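Could you please review the protein record set out just below?
***
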Amino acid sequence: MSGKKGMKKYPVGIREEVVSRVQAGESQNALSREYGISRWAIQCWLKEPALPKTRGRKPAKTLAEYKYENKRLKMENELLRDFLRSTERK
């Protein structure tokens, strides 16, 4: 959440070092005092995924995939139409 007003942004190197030391078994309290970082910040860093989320488009479907999906949907629609016709007659 760094970037919000009042929150300090720490360099990635320090974050990685602190996380690796915690995972190696060192106390969060000791590291918090050593680096002057809140325990809450360290806990948040530990919960973060290893790789940052990337934004972007999903990979484009091929023409064959679109044709297959279109055929499947047409078949599904036909089945639903048949079912509705059969239930209306009863």
About this structure: Residues 10 and 33 are 15 Å apart (CA to CA). The chain has four helices and no strands.
